[in-house]
Request: fold
Amino acid sequence: MADDTTDTKSSNQMWGGRFASGPDAIMEEINASIGFDKKLFAQDIRGSIAHATMLAHQGIISAEDKDKIVHGLNTILSEIESGNFEFSRQLEDIHMNVEARLATLIGPAAGRLHTARSRNDQVALDFRLWVKEELQKTEQMLTGLIAAFLDRAEEHAESVMPGFTHLQTAQPVTFGHHCMAYVEMFGRDRARARHAIEHLDESPIGAAALAGTGYPIDRHMTAKALGFREPTRNSIDTVSDRDFAIEFLSIAAIAGMHLSRLAEEIVIWSTPQFGFVRLSDAFSTGSSIMPQKKNPDAAELVRAKTGRINGSLVALLTIMKGLPLAYSKDMQEDKEQVFDAAESLELAIAAMTGMVRDMTVNTARMKAAAGSGYSTATDLADWLVREAGLPFRDAHHVTGRAVALAESKGCDLAELPLSDLQAIHAEITDKVYDVLTVEASVASRKSFGGTAPSEVRKQIAFWRARN
Ligand code: ARG
Reply:
């Protein structure tokens, strides 16, 4: 005979009316989400207070019951915040943990709170509120990272470094310009976070299990009380939608990809072979066996966290892709993915902001590297177009011969004697040497968005006004 009296086998006090016995231990383990959804306690309590207030306003519950409920919920909030709350796995999730405690605190009035709602709209609400706050935090953190880059860009608007394509020296650029490329990327990430907040800014509460409710609730009232623009329009969609979580993960994945590219550059730049930057002691580690080493661990971990975030995005897309409308328990698995990705993203942005602010830039190394690899070859070709009237394709060919000659002599383009250059093309004069320096090269690229220090300063001013 089933033993209905033991703790693990007693039927659930929230939904156990039709159950003779409680769940098997394994059932309880696979079913419970309290281990992770307790993170939603503040949102859950806020949502319940708004719901109870609306129920009383609409005459669905009495004002006295509402007062008891609100008072009890505030007590629970301080209990949880001060670590004096015992979460129970038998009570499955945060919603039932809070409600059971409310019943202990205020008695039968607690049972009225769940009128005209379901855990389906409740969890949709709690999670939306959490994701909204996380997106706001992401926005702020990205603003901090952008500010760090703007400062470095201003400091290095004139510092010349090699620009790369295929990781081969391409043309000289300024380090300020390179920093501003990241400002553009993180600026787009921030805009995506803002858009996502607009998309999710609809209140799910009142959708109930899936079909809405027969009680005369006011969803506009709860939406307003919870800081949403308006209520959602379709109750079926409301309880089966996790787009807001997937959008957060997509944004995190794209921002993570940007952070990871930056991390990769820092790893490369901080090698002794490049020596473009030196990380501060605060953002690097040593080796236990090789005393000379300074490792860019924080950058490497940012690169790795990005892999985790991508995994979370793919996991949630996969969890959702086969679900018939409306709610299915599969959806409970949404939270850990989002929580883990949020933690990784926050850490990655914070670590990158610190590294960018603290790293020492070796402008001498950058400049020396900028001048090697025939980086001003395009400037020679452009000079031939401008000063000797050659079509660009011919100028390209002539310049290629000059590069080949310099290579065979083991020198830079600027080190070729004029006689050598004139042997390749008779119209070359000694004025050409003016464009062959890296400073002249970057200063000449004044096209909108180009690398010239004057342009970079304009880009900095543009972003300063928006940050
Ligand atoms: N813990 C659940 C979740 O996270 C809450 C919703 C449960 N709804 C239900 N009908 N069983 O999704």
